[in-house]
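lol forgot to send this yesterday, sorry. struct tokens for the thing we talked abt
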């Protein structure tokens, strides 16, 4: 699909120049028409050679804008800096550890162009915590273009709806952004600001969509260390309080099952003879779904009874190194 309105691609960087930023930028210029986008890169006070590289990038390409922050402002505030510089009719937020594929941009934007009810679109990926994830045997950062080509050709134009989209790569129209606003900077360094934005978009009566025809290779959270991940505990509680709901891990499992169920039903409707092995899967779907829904209700009930301080302690134990767990188990009372 061709389009005349320019896209602003916004990338936030913090160190990881060789591992993340350079391969990311090179993949964008290799697989994207330079006339279709402007590239906005905000650096959050990197200590490596990233600022120097970005200065050179700006001199090399006419469509590059950069902002060099004097301190690490975190993901939401850093991305907001980029959004303030953006002039495109379409906005793409992209992690610096992403590698794109041929025709990725046109495939990513197509649902936003054809369906005004869609407010946010994400691609499929190898490394993501939602049903956007697909696994292709043998795929890695060196062969991902070749290994995903047939899949993308077979499923070009296919879209499914969801409740959550990972912000490692996400696109929206300018009119949606102007209605929803910036990312919530109260999430600090990061984590759950994407879930917050997805909820805000849905409350504004827009749909979230994933396109099966766009794949991005995600190397995976190069910019977050363990200390920053601990900040996620606080953000999770803030998210739940802000939207008056209880966060559960089983929600993701239910979303996965919904996607699998939809695809199996599509297959069944287009085939008169059902494969016996597939039949054994389909007759157990309802039971599995009922089990997950019941587990989700139990999780919500348990979480509501748990005091925030206790909840934080339990999560810390399950995410901590082994030596911390041993200390918690064997410490004297």
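and heres what i got for the seq, position by position
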């Amino acid at each position: 699909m061709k389009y005349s309105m320019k896209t602003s691609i916004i990338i936030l960087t913090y160190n990881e120049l060789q591992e993340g930023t350079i391969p990311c930028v090179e993949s964008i210029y290799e697989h994207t028409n330079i006339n279709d986008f402007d590239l906005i890169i905000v650096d959050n006070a990197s200590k490596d050679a990233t600022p120097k590289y970005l200065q050179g990038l700006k001199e090399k390409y006419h469509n590059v804008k950069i902002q060099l922050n004097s301190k690490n402002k975190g993901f939401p505030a850093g991305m907001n800096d980029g959004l303030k510089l953006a002039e495109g009719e379409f906005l793409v937020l992209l992690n610096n550890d992403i590698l794109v594929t041929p025709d990725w941009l046109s495939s990513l934007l197509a649902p936003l162009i054809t369906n005004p009810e869609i407010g946010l679109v994400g691609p499929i990926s190898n490394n993501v915590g939602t049903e956007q994830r697909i696994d292709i045997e043998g795929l890695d950062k060196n062969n991902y273009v070749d290994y995903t080509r047939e899949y993308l050709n077979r499923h070009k134009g296919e879209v499914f709806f969801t409740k959550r989209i990972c912000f490692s790569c996400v696109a929206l129209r300018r009119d949606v952004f102007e209605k929803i606003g910036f990312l919530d900077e109260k999430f600090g360094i990061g984590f759950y600001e994407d879930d917050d934005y997805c909820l805000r978009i849905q409350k504004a009566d827009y749909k979230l969509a994933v396109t099966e025809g766009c794949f991005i290779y995600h190397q995976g959270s190069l910019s977050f260390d363990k200390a920053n991940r601990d900040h996620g505990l606080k953000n999770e509680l803030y998210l739940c309080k802000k939207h008056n709901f209880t966060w559960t891990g089983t929600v993701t499992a239910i979303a996965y099952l919904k996607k699998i169920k939809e695809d199996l039903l599509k297959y069944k409707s287009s085939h008169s003879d059902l494969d016996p092995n597939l039949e054994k899967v389909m007759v157990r779907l309802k039971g599995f779904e009922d089990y997950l829904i019941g587990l989700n209700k139990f999780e919500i009930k348990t979480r509501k009874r748990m005091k925030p301080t206790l909840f934080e302690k339990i999560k810390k134990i399950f995410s901590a190194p082994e030596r911390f767990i041993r200390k918690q188990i064997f410490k004297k009372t």
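The longest strand covers residues 207-218. anyway ping me if u want another try
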